[in-house]
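Why do we care about 3D structure at all? Because function follows from shape, and shape follows, mostly, from sequence. That is the central idea of this module. The next example makes it concrete: a single protein chain, its amino acid sequence, and then its structure expressed as tokens.
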Amino acid sequence: MTSIKYIGMDVHMESISICVRNSLGKIVMECVIETKGSTILQFLEGLRGDLRVVFEEGTWATWLYDLMKPHATEVLVCNTRKNAVRKGSKSDRIDARKLSEQLYMNNVKSIYHGEHGLRMMKELARSYLTITKDLTRVMNRLKALYRSWGIPCAGNEVYAPRYRAEWLAKIHEAGVQRRAEHYYQQLDVLRPLRQEVRRDLLVESRKHKIWKLLRRIPAIGPIRAAILIAVMQTPHRFRTKRQLWNYSGLGLETYDSAEYRAVQGQLERSRKQATVRGLNKDYNHDLKDIFKGAAMRASTASGPLQDFYENLLAKGRKPTMARLTLARKIAAITLIVWKKEVRFDANYLKQQAA
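And the structure:
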């Protein structure tokens, strides 16, 4: 009979605290090793049986996952928001013990670390999203600077190089003007850099067959399709559309209690509706931005998605809720198109595909 080792790792920059349990859940080894690739592999090679490893999501997670995956039966990256490691006393040794215990009890909420063939897409998408956020931050700082001195600056003219001298002349304080010049210099660096990363991302995305199908979905353009591939990696992570909704922050959280009542000696289910507490708060922010942005665009651009949105408004749905429903619909259609590798069909907007 093959023995199973449940290995919990509490990872830090310079050291890793490790706890190993056997198939009966008994601790058989505890140690501290250096956070170094060769040392980690040497440790795994010294163990026998099926090796199942768990550690928390963090800076080192992707590197550790790729390093240990070929040398272990199972490698799980733990979702720190949903595990029980954070409760009670804390130390490196205690955290490693708790991780190995949760793994032994099959109580680990893992984070997906999968498709190695999409590594380039993931890195380029991260670069694009990060630089876009940096660019947006600098643009917001510029407008905030002008407004803080009572200078109205609606629109995009304030960013244009051709009007820059005119806008700088409106600032009479020398120090503030110099500060605005620094922001403009930062803007001039980020704009071409963002375009370069965008080109690289689109070149890489064209290598994937599904990209052409995803961008045929209304409101899912080439960039949104590329980021979808980089973030989701595979649609088969999600068994149903509701799982994708929750992952994208589009899932409704409800609360219900005292669901049954006694009527003439028999228990009957109460007819009161469950209380809706809003959307789930633990989600992938980039994916939510994609589906929300697609819904905003689709609600104003002519096509089947706008017709779907207008029908919701005609039924008395509030605009915010109608856009949420449209975003959920786009997510569901994305899952259908990707899993079945088919083109977008307006019939997907019917009730059964909601």
